[in-house]
Amino acid sequence: MASMIFTDCSSSSTTATRFLPLSRHRVRDGLLHSRCSTPLRFAPTSPGLLRTIAATSRTYASPSVLTVAMAADTSAKIIDGKSVAKKIRDEITAEISRMKDAIGVVPGLAVILVGDRKDSATYVRNKKKACESVGINSYEVRLPEDSSDQEVLEYISGFNDDPAVHGILVQLPLPSHMNEQNILNAVCIEKDVDGFHPLNIGRLAMRGRDPLFVPCTPKGCIELLHRYGVNIKGKKAVVIGRSNIVGMPAALLLQREDATISIVHSRTKNPEEITRQADIIISAVGKPNMVRGNWIKPGAVVIDVGINPVEDAKSARGYRLVGDVCYEEACKIASAITPVPGGVGPMTIAMLLSNTLSSAKRLHNFK
Amino acid sequence: MASMIFTDCSSSSTTATRFLPLSRHRVRDGLLHSRCSTPLRFAPTSPGLLRTIAATSRTYASPSVLTVAMAADTSAKIIDGKSVAKKIRDEITAEISRMKDAIGVVPGLAVILVGDRKDSATYVRNKKKACESVGINSYEVRLPEDSSDQEVLEYISGFNDDPAVHGILVQLPLPSHMNEQNILNAVCIEKDVDGFHPLNIGRLAMRGRDPLFVPCTPKGCIELLHRYGVNIKGKKAVVIGRSNIVGMPAALLLQREDATISIVHSRTKNPEEITRQADIIISAVGKPNMVRGNWIKPGAVVIDVGINPVEDAKSARGYRLVGDVCYEEACKIASAITPVPGGVGPMTIAMLLSNTLSSAKRLHNFK
């Protein structure tokens, strides 16, 4: 399996992947050709889907139109991350207002950006906008590409000591001359809103302990399951991918909720034999359309974390985004599924805001 | 599933379980009655086993005799933890001698025992003897039952600062008036030879990070697999039990070695469906004979961490020890299996000695 591909899992995204060679995934000859091992042929029993594909073939509808059209013709409930994230941001806004009125404190998030990567600049800008939208103060430091580790460490130290700052993000990737691990370790544990510190991960793994922060993307996955009333306790859950930022913490979170977990990864033989047993699948590997319909048990709930660019000559950008899961097949088999985009993606930043608020509440002992 | 039952998983054992009400498990009417759901009836195709049972019935052979007798008539290779542990202790002895000759340093292990529990005193005495046998200096502090947290913390602080001490154990359980978590957290991470600190567990869970210490019992399980040439990479491994001290870290260790892991626990429905798929089973739940023969895939490797006392009127102690796995059935199906006792048990203390040596080597930068 390839390394994780996301647009931005909070600060530690593998952002370069947007610029990886694109996968082929286009409509031709009335068939949907994808990176799936065979072209998808739809039986006449799926007239709705055929209509959708035909429409796509003619008009090259945007992914969101495609999603809606399919939802109308399939049994899978669409887990709408966009609207859940909006609701959570509204809740955060209200809570911040309550805290400000009660104790005069406004949460603050500091973001440190080193270098000139356009994608990183975009992510930082999006975070800043998201902070503004809910009433979190954002503090941004931009340093030139050739900055020293020491300069970054000094800013981190300043934010660690600043009572107006409750969360600190170092936007990744850092320039290659920097010692990323040393720099990340310098963020004090009480402000590590990404939740990637080994101490947080250890607490997440241990029964009877609680992490200060849960990493944003896996937290978003579980939040979606909760908000859609998906029962986790006692269910079989399979996580595809074992990255530090999504797969591994997602598995630990599911286990904390009493799921029976299995973790599938690049060394797993016949992964589909394992996924087919799952009541809940969380996929986070960064392989477009890897999870086929026949990998999924009828009625399973599918959370697709992958956001993979595939070539699309008809898109103004030259590509479009698809998940790890072959949506067209999965939505006919799963009972509920997240679309890509509009599923897990919007949840990540909502969880970052949530972690920042939690941090401020904890540091000011506000209930 | 019941809570974990072991004699002593380094310092953090649930030692009280030795004194739990004993399970019934005795030979009567030519049948082996156990806590398994049905009495075990042996088909005539297992004459060797029948002979063994008959012998047991007549003479009440000791568990070790029973084990050897069975091994001769079954296909499962006996994973002999006792002899592996002996070999490891010999290796440690040689390494300590090499270090002493080269830099004049002898590893030191400090053990703090609070209160008068006889079982705890026995474990501490065994650790002391094991240290002596390999050339590790042991430092023991015995405090009365009514000691304050502060007194214990002062000893820990002293050992933290003492360059002759490379590992610190606080024997558990502590008296109920003490704050166990606070006390354990006071042991500095560089001397936490139990490896239970959340920072160590976090590093164990994360790819690209390495823990300073791996918890002794799960480390012993993996060491047995290595020493018996069991291939882990790409294999399906099921861990039964998710405790902080065995199940969870065992699963993390197996995943680090590229196994595809599933974790079965008290909330798992039909656990046998999952275990039957495993190439490797590690059971650590503390339920005598829970894992029956039909839970095991033919040819699987079985590591039985459970050490459960079951009533045995013919034993001088009134009980004998059995594992989580119904050995009589499992040894006919597995390709290799650890006996109880004499399997994982002896490995725990060997790994404690190994961790203490590693700590001394690291603190003195000795390769």
UniProtKB/TrEMBL annotation, chains A, B:
Keywords: Hydrolase, Multifunctional enzyme, NADP, One-carbon metabolism, Oxidoreductase, Photorespiration. GO terms for molecular function: methenyltetrahydrofolate cyclohydrolase activity; methylenetetrahydrofolate dehydrogenase (NADP+) activity. Pfam families: THF_DHG_CYH, THF_DHG_CYH_C. Residues 79-194 form the Tetrahydrofolate dehydrogenase/cyclohydrolase catalytic domain. It catalyses: (6R)-5,10-methenyltetrahydrofolate + H2O = (6R)-10-formyltetrahydrofolate + H(+); (6R)-5,10-methylene-5,6,7,8-tetrahydrofolate + NADP(+) = (6R)-5,10-methenyltetrahydrofolate + NADPH. InterPro entries: Aminoacid_DH-like_N_sf, NAD(P)-bd_dom_sf, THF_DH/CycHdrlase, THF_DH/CycHdrlase_cat_dom, THF_DH/CycHdrlase_CS, THF_DH/CycHdrlase_NAD-bd_dom. GO terms for cellular component: cytosol. Homodimer. Catalyzes the oxidation of 5,10-methylenetetrahydrofolate to 5,10-methenyltetrahydrofolate and then the hydrolysis of 5,10-methenyltetrahydrofolate to 10-formyltetrahydrofolate. This is Methenyltetrahydrofolate cyclohydrolase. It comes from Actinidia chinensis var. chinensis (Chinese soft-hair kiwi). The lineage of its organism: Eukaryota, Viridiplantae, Streptophyta, Embryophyta, Tracheophyta.
